[in-house]
Amino acid sequence: NPLQGAQFVLAAHRINQLPADSGAEVAFAGRSNAGKSSALNALTGHRGLARTSKTPGRTQQMVAFSLPPLPQEAGQPPLDVRLIDLPGYGYAKVPPELRDHWKQEIDLYLHQRRSLRGVVLIADIRHPLKEFDRMMLDFCFATHLPCQLLMTKADKLSRGQATQALLAMRKSFPEGLPATAQIFSSSAGTGVEEAREAVVRLLRT
Ligand code: GDP
To answer: What is the pTM of this model?
Structure first.
């Protein structure tokens, strides 16, 4: 597993508290309770890396995780790589000021972070994309930032239903959207390999 060895670095309330903006990083985004923490843990093979909970809206921080440096071509120094867990979005009980703060910070992060190579967007396969998800995809479209969409909790559907949801999602993507959708399940392990490869590909772009 190329994402093994991930380690907590810091939790930030503002983007200027994040690690130095060098090397390469991939951001994880999703609505609260979509299954983002579970996905991070499954991908890194580290059960307790990101805290999962049944209480949505708890993770109101940006969390940086370092990965072991990626080897590069001969003569090139290994690439410093990170994963950034963006705060879960869309939880109704979060006070409006805090929600606005995070909307602004996520926006700043997406616009200013030079080491950002791509986004992993996590959404529940059973629900249509919500406003936040569409906002992320619109941003990726406008800025040519690649996105891997994990349609998670696929274990809650039959295989046929999951495939149907995936095909419908792909069909709904406008031409030129730099996004790839895939089926995922943290509990069943579905799509974990595919997503790991996608993250490494993003880090290397
Ligand atoms: P986050 O708020 O997006 O970080 O979501 P969590 O990872 O904490 O997960 C929210 C809830 O969904 C928890 O109760 C998880 O156990 C559950 N969950 C997450 N991923 C899956 C999955 O792949 N399958 C199923 N059945 N449940 C999941």
So the answer is: 0.95
SS3 content of the chain, % helix, strand, coil (to 5): 35, 25, 40
User: Separation of 72 CA from ligand 1 center, angstroms?
Assistant: 34
Please state which of the ranges 27-41, 59-73, 83-97, 181-195 shows the lowest mean pLDDT.
Answer: 83-97
ipTM value: 0.99
Task: Tell me how far apart the alpha carbons of residues 142 and 165 are, in angstroms, rounded to a whole number.
Answer: 25
CATH 3.30.420.40 fits 7-204, yes or no: no
* Ligand 1 atom nearest 32 alpha carbon: 2
Q: pLDDT tens digits, residue range 118-133? A: 999 999 999 989 999 9
